[in-house]
Write a structure and sequence with these properties.
Blueprint (H helix, E strand, L loop, with lengths): L1 E3 L5 E3 L5 H22 L4 E2 L4 E2 L2 E7 L9 H13 L5 E6 H10 L3 H8 L6 E7 L2 E4 L4 E2 L7 E11 L8 E10 L2 H16 L2 H7 L3 E2 L9 E2 L1 H20 L3 E2 L5 E3 H7 L1 H4 L6 E4 L2 E5 L4 H8 L11 E10 L15 E11 L4 H18 L3 E7 L9 H18 L3 E4 L9 E7 L5 E10 L1 H6 L3 E2 L5 E2 L2 E6 L4 H12 L12 E5 L5 H13 L4 E3 L6 H10 L4 E5 L1 H6 L1 E6 L3 E7 H11 L2
Parallel strand pairs: 14-18, 20-21, 27-28, 27-29
Antiparallel strand pairs: 1-2, 1-9, 3-5, 4-5, 5-11, 6-7, 7-8, 10-11, 12-13, 15-17, 16-17, 18-19, 19-26, 20-22, 22-23, 23-26, 24-25, 29-30, 30-31
Helix pairs in contact: 1-2, 3-4, 6-14, 11-12
Length: 584
Amino acid sequence: MKIKMRDGSMREAAFEEELGRDAFRHTTAHILAQAVKRLYPDAKCAIGPAIPEGFYYDFEFPFRFSEENFPEVEAETRKIVKENLQLRQFTADRKWALEEMERRGEDYKAEILCGLRSEEQISFYRQGEHLEMCAGPHVAYTSAVRAFKLLSVAGAYWRGDERNRMLTRIYGTSFPDSRMLEEYLNRLEEAKRRDHRKLGRELGLFALLKEGPGFPFFLPRGLVLKNLLIDYWRRLHAREGYREISTPVILNRGLWETSGHWEHYRDKMYATVIDGEDYAIKPMSCPGGMLVYQMEPRSYRNLPMRVSELGLIHRNEKSGTLHGLMRVRCCTQDDAHIFMMPEQIQEEIKGVARLIDEVYSKFGFQYHVELSTRPEDSVGSDEDWAMATDGLRNALEDLGLPYEVNPGDGAFYGPKIDFHLEDSIGRTWQCGTIQLDFQLPQRFGAEYIGEDGKKHRPIMIHRVVFGSIERFMGILIEHYEGKFPLWLSPVQVKVLPVSDKYMDYAREMESAMKKEGLRCETDARGEKIGCKIRTAQMERVPYMLIVGEKETGTGDVSVRKREEGDLGRMPLERFLGMLKEEGI
């Protein structure tokens, strides 16, 4: 596939490469804009970038645009593809560009130009009558876009600012052939079926209420699931030598100024005033962890010091970004901080990486790793950043973990390793992270007494495994489609009496299983057994025990398994043995 670059040169790039894929979808966004302008000349174009799964374009329409308009827009888009228009790149000075955008009535393009330097040369791409102010790259001809689909419409504030006009954002995707598009659309349908918001409601796990947007309510079964994850997390961390702490949710402004959050993260923080002094609800747990480290003198003999915390954090996310449990304003971050000497960096990073690998393997996830380097908005010297980045890189290479470099995506205080896990339908999620930090110990004046009797500065690792308990729950719900493994199921066994006549025996079975530590419920409704079975199936319960006249007479249970159906009648002891073999 030929790609036209900003300098006018041509390059070959496959769709499977990031350059080729982005150029392909960016071109599709231009074709969409051209189709919209042909159909609705009074519409105004804003921006239209490629995104990981496709593209979007923001427009201002003189009417209410909806998905009902998709057929005519897609039909016009197909015409433009068939016209095989060449994308011609050229540059112009800002004066000409501004006059041209104003002549075309493209107010948003003109606003962008007004923010550029007067001497700057502006890159344009032309296809037929359509002109786009764009840095590229793009494919050479519109005919390359053989398969595309408009997916949805959403509102989007111009430049992401709630004070600006609300525009109409059209999302779409495109592929080189119809087979790839069909496979993608099938994955989308599967993702809708697994949507954790839908399943969370159906399975009685959590609720999202208008009284607290971004603040999820956990229902009894959802809290069981959350606590099972926390219990598992605690067992692993106790085994690995972590000591758990809990730090306050609200701390004063001085702490956040020292940590750098007040300067670099203030717009995401909730603030309040107590006794005339500014306070903030914590968006991260690390400054509180630093205070714990400094509560007493530390020796090199105490290091590494591994401190874990299930920290309740709050972040002021914009309402338009909230998404079930995946993007919330309040969550429990499975945080941990390791304080260490320079010579301990490699082993500690490798220890965390092995722990993350163990956890993801437990849940059946594959993953890939990225090394994220220094962003523009950062603190610290070049020397510290180089040392920190090399420390992470060397640990990955020692472990033999393949990785990609993600330039400029590190935290403001240090580089990081990000773990992107892949779920059962091929989607990736960034969850675990290891961040190496030379800055916070320096900003807080943290010290330890070395073997030489002198004071030294510790180095700090910030790391999470789940990321946040809430988000990881959302990922698991979709990964398993609500069909949790036995050990993780909020309800492991459901007893279904054929009628009220056998309720006492059902309760007896329930009590026996609870004594064995099983999470068991009895369906005491006055419904027919078929209805009870269907309900348990909808609830994704791993095992159902049907009890009636035969079972009551023999002291047995009739077992149905979620994936396998009827397993026949058996003594309760045999059934319990099966569960123990499966791992309860």
